[in-house]
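To illustrate the input format used throughout this study, we show a single complete record. The first block contains the structure-token representation of the backbone; no residue identities are included at this stage. The design step must infer an amino acid for every position from geometry alone.
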């Protein structure tokens, strides 16, 4: 199944519960927008494009299960739901992008209640379907950068689970593998939630891509020893100047790649490019609870003393000078990004 999908029989949203993988494959069923917002906040679903599609389906739930008697009442309900969904997580721009697209699809609408409900569901389904198609186009472009025999360092989870299907950076790796290139992947485990060790490893097992898990702090070692030829990551929001916000740890990885002359590629659908933000220091960075850092146990014991504090920024920003190129569905974008990214977003 897709990471997130609409159940046309039950008018429900179904999503893979990513908190439980790889131990358990469980599907969560959601029937109102508040449940979708909670699922985004609690990371039942995560990854920028998957969050965007989930939010769109959250509005579809509002529409399809509404008790409104007229179009104006439904519009009001949709706006309330959109406001709640928008605040579920701050960094991934796909969330706001999908909600804006959903609301703007209704703005010129001039029909009856049932037609508006159908339009909302159809728009959410289009966002989901387009995500898969865009990822495959992006993967075809990105795979050109991978050579036979490459070892690639990858951070977080950017695969099918982070999107509706197929993935961004991990989708590029999967495409290169399917093209017959012999590649090896070093997966950053990605503290604190271990999206690399849990989710990317789970995916690569299924695709048959050879991989090993590495601790985040050993990436510099492999880069300095010439044991990795490329770095591929995704993004949650890329600013107009090409600064890339992505999972915490990406910045350190990019620094180590630069210092060792290893190309660092961000794989970014245009829905993740925020041209309204001039540079990365303006991107809102989510800070999550200390328990994500402290809950880890070793030999059945907590890793830290009782009462220890912790800081937990979920993302960091990699400045554009460390980014070798940005792969989009419209092609591979080179610096100067402030000139070339708007062209890519415009499809040129
Ligand atoms: O906190 P998460 O797991 O939602 O963070 C996900 C990432 O940082 C991914 O790298 C990002 O969404 C881009 S890949 C689709």
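Output of the design step:
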């Amino acid at each position: 199944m897709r990471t997130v999908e609409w159940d046309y029989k039950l008018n429900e949203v179904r999503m893979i519960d990513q908190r439980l993988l790889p131990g358990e494959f469980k599907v969560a069923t959601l029937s109102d927008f508040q449940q979708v917002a909670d699922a985004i906040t609690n990371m039942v679903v995560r990854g920028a494009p998957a969050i965007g599609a989930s939010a769109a389906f959250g509005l579809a739930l509002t529409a399809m299960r509404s008790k409104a008697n007229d179009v104006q009442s439904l519009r009001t309900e949709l706006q309330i739901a959109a406001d709640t969904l928008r605040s579920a997580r701050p960094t991934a721009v796909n969330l706001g992008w999908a909600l804006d697209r959903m609301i703007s699809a209704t703005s010129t609408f001039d029909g009856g209640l049932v037609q508006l409900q159908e339009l909302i569901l159809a728009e959410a389904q289009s966002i989901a379907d387009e995500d898969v198609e865009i990822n495959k186009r992006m993967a075809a472009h990105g795979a050109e950068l991978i050579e036979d025999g490459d070892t690639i360092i990858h951070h977080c989870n950017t695969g099918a689970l982070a999107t509706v299907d197929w993935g961004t950076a991990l989708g590029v790796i999967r495409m290169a593998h399917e093209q017959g290139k012999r590649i090896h992947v070093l997966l950053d485990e990605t503290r604190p939630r271990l999206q690399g060790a849990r989710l990317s490893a789970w995916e690569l097992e299924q695709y048959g891509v050879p991989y090993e898990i590495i601790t985040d702090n050993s990436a510099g070692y492999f880069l300095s020893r010439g044991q990795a030829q490329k770095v591929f990551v995704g993004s949650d929001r890329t600013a107009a100047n090409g600064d890339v916000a992505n999972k915490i740890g990406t910045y350190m990885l990019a620094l180590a790649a630069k210092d060792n002359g290893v190309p660092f590629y961000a794989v970014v659908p245009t829905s993740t490019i925020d041209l309204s933000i001039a540079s990365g220091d303006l991107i809102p960075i989510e800070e999550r609870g200390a328990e994500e850092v402290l809950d880890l146990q070793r030999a059945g014991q907590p890793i830290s003393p009782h009462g220890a504090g912790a800081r937990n920024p979920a993302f960091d920003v990699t400045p554009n000078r460390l980014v070798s190129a940005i792969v989009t569905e419209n092609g591979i974008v080179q610096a100067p990004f402030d000139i070339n990214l708007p062209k890519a977003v415009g499809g040129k």
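Structural context for interpreting the output: Residues 46-49, 92, 156, 158, 162-163, 168, 195, 234-236, 246-247, 314 surround MRU (CB under 6 Å). The mean pLDDT is 97.
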